[in-house]
Amino acid sequence: MASSSGAGSGNERKLIRVPSTDAHARFNLSPVPSVEDDEIESINRRNYPETDQDDSGEEVDLTGGAYDSTTTVTMFDHNHDVTSSLRVQGHGGLVTDVAYVVHKHYENFQTIDWLKDLMRSRIRHRNLRSQRRKSWRQRFTFLFDTWSGWICVLLVGILAGFVAGFVDIGAKWMSHWRSGVCTPAFWLNREQCCWASSKVEFDDVHNEICDNWKSWSHIFGFTETAVAAWFFRYFMFIFWSVIYSTFIVILVVGSAPYASGSGIPEIKTILSGFIMYGYLGKWTFLIKSIGMIFATSAGLIVGKEGPFVHISCCCGNIFSKLFPKYGNNEARKREILSAAAATGVSVAFGAPIGGILFSLEEISYYFPYKTLWRTFLCCMVGALVVRIINPYGNGHEIQFPVEYNVPWATFEVIPFIGLGALGGLWGTLFIKTNIRWLKYKKTSRIGRYPRAEVIILTLITAFICYPNQYLRLTMPELIRRLVGQCHIDDHMDLCDYVRDKPIGTATAKLYAAEAGPGLHRAIWQLFWALIVQMTLVIFTIGIKVPSGLIVPSISIGAIAGRLIGIITEQIAFQNQNIALLRRECGVSNEHCVTPGLYAVVGACAFLGGVSRMTVSLVVIMSEVTGGLSYIVPLMITALTAKWVGDAFGEGIYEENVKLSGYPFLENRESFRFSLKAGEAIRANRSGENPPLACIYQDGMTIAQIDALVRHQPHSVYPVVISADFPCIVGQVQRRDLLVVLKSRKIQLEYEKPKSGSLNRKMSVVSMSNLLNKSGQAASLGRRRASIALQASKILQLHKLVDRAPIIVTDQTPMEAVVDMFRKLGCRQIFVTKNGRLQGILTRKDIIRLMHDANVSGKFDD
């Protein structure tokens, strides 16, 4: 930020004046005339890049020639295949006027200018519309541009659906490979392998047992019941887990560091207008797609559903480059990315409506009405492709189907609220411990060895999980068993009840009964699984592999919910005569309490406690399970989890954004303290009084501007009339000044051998578009003008200046300034007092002020 002036007792701000390298002419804001030899050497020492290239492949070739008193700078825009040249007009051989085309792309780690990008998009659309009747080619171009948004989201949905199906099938097959192999067809997972078997049995956790599926101990000749066979299967389970994790961590750390994590915090920041080149690139897309298969197959407590948001946004970024309407405009591109983020949830869970609400509630920063319909199409296409591929093997796109429709009792509101409170407390505990662990890793030796960290964590996870049959399952398989209802022919431990009434047929009704020994055994194993997952997930989230938090949270919540459901079921069975239970449980005793429903509600509670989602979470859980009859219990739980969690802090995504230091301005956070814009500038100075880096409209030399952009590397500089009268007239981008300095350096290298020491002329730059008849800048003083005209040429750069900056007075309330940053997407706002420039407020300044006000209590009265 170009900081404001000092806060002395009534002292006015002093604008910075870079000392000139000579005692002659000053610098006027314009492009490039000649400079003295010492200035030539000074500028030649600067290492300006020959080519400026961004993530989309646009290159700007900066060349300049000067065969007389003219200067030409040529820019090549490969996205438009148009060459725009800087037209030069001479005024008596003394004035060089450069019509400069401002960059349409941004540098890395910058914030986009929403207003300028949207304005440029509207101008482009009007130009295409006005030219559509000239020829059939122009009309086709206009129609293609009009429908490009729909075509782009259609392609994104198709590709995201195919990737989701590929990842789901691959992850399930590789996870089962750790325990055995299908000998007739090794490419089949355990469930598919047993489809063709005539005799299929099930173990205590409902895993298939058939002749076609062979365990590793059987393949290597061990007797299945021998102790040595169990330890050999244990070894192979750990061996394959380590192989998977080692492969993917080497691939991620060495080739695509952006492929680690879930990506949701970064996607939130990118959609708010932040530039992160490479984060949505093709290589990141490929590595993360493969990495999700290996990371989840290794048995780590991570999910693949969260990273699907990142993967889908990579698809959106890749396809948006095919359409100039979105590929060349960062603000419009974010409309495609918002639709892609929603599609990530749609293909991950088979929840298209929940994906739309997730993008609207949790991810998107700019979500216009037309984007809603395109998002609707994108999510629908993605879910349809997943259904066609059928990766879950259940004939539909629902991942955790609930095949019961038993009404819930009124008294169950009490345990539902209790589950919501537990979810909020667990979310708070996880967020605080995980963030503290990630901060510790940044400053310790652990963070220096990400490969070793992943391998050791995999060893520990596999070593602890294998003895527990429920932890040996993949998390989606475990969740599917926890949310399901027991049937007549189920013989797993979770369905072991002591039935008093005989069971007649397979369609007979199941009545409540006392828990059997298998159920007691399952309770203790699930309790141990709950402790293990809650502990390991704290240290796993944040490692250098693709890792999502959504499925681990659902798994932990489902375990806790199932345990509470079993306890509630047994209490209701043993106390049917209590007045609270007699009405709904004392008549038929049929399904008074459904433990599987508690697993669904618990999953909603724990995920809501971590993410702080509400509306989208309820819809996602309803679509994921298909349990539309349980909307009210889910709403009660989600709201309770959010209330409890918000009492202790923010959600995991917001905390990760703060931990990474991204300039994300939260829409939902309020600025609670009365502060004026002038006071905010003084608060940002922290007691210092630095001068404001600005450019004078006339009277500066090229050497001074060169020193300014090197010593004050801000993204934008205000243009004021003079040091004595700092009235703002516009702003100029640093990247544009660098281009001009580069072109001038090339011109001087050509002119120097030609003119030798006779051509010792100063470059005077002017940002004013007013010239008198002699070619002199009208705002130059007589003395400075005479010196300038005797010893230099005037370089006109007024076409670089943006003459419509956002300006507020020092008495503007900060609430209004914060709303301007949020709703207008401003990059910076200039603050004036009595027409004189006082300072600049940037997005980072606002974030810092809001943190000081809301967290540190700096402005408490």
TrEMBL record:
Residue spans of biased composition, Acidic residues class: 51-61
Membrane topology of the entry: Multi-pass membrane protein
GO molecular function terms noted in the UniProt entry: voltage-gated chloride channel activity
Family matches, as InterPro entries: CBS_dom, CBS_dom_sf, Cl-channel_core, ClC
Compartments reported by the entry: Endosome membrane; Membrane
Provenance organism: Adineta ricciae
Similarity remark: Belongs to the chloride channel (TC 2.A.49) family.
Primary localization: membrane
Protein name in UniProt: Chloride channel protein
Keywords per UniProt: CBS domain, Chloride, Ion transport, Membrane, Transmembrane, Transmembrane helix, Transport
CBS domain boundaries: 801-856
Any one cellular-component term (Gene Ontology): endosome membrane
TM segment ranges: 142-167, 234-259, 280-302, 336-360, 372-393, 413-431, 452-471, 522-542, 549-567
Gene3D superfamilies in the record: 3.90.1280.20, Clc chloride channel
Residue span of region Disordered: 1-61
